[in-house]
Amino acid sequence: MNCYVLYCQRFKIENLCHTFNTKKGIEAFIPLMEKHIHSTNEIVLKPLFPNYLFIKTKMNQIEFDTFLLLMKEEKNGVIKELKKDDVSALTKDEIHLLKLLLNGQYVLKMSKGYKQTNKTIVIEGPLKPLQEHIVSVNKREHFAILNIEFLNRRIKAGIEMQDKEI
Fold this sequence. Notes:
The chain has 166 residues and is of the alpha+beta class. The chain contains three helices and twelve strands. The strands form three sheets. It has a five-stranded mixed beta sheet with strand order 9-8-12-11-10, with no helix packed on it. A hairpin with a 2-residue loop joins strand 11 and strand 12 (153-162). The model has no long low-confidence stretch (mean pLDDT 91).
């Protein structure tokens, strides 16, 4: 299975996701993350990578490029396909990272953890296997920054910090 990434117009990405999902052999999704809103103390879903649409398919790069060309007006709102040296499919490591972080609905759920002598210990959630990659935590805003880059930016994920070990 290959995974391609399309950069899209913000107001058209939902429709594009729906359009791609009507095509045979295509699974399109917008990765979301749970985000804590401090002012209202609620958890909301926000795009993990704003304006990026992910496409899972068995098509190789040439087949996918041809498929995109044949979509014509249907792909209105796609700005560009992310590519590196004519290859836009995510690497096996990047696909593995997405599988670690996202649940079956492509949502990065909040993790739970605590501080132990300048180290963040994750007790629950998708950050547990990646806790050694956490470089900073904003306890008030409930997020952690990882030293892992994806789409040329560091990964930011929700985490609820406890005062001490439970």
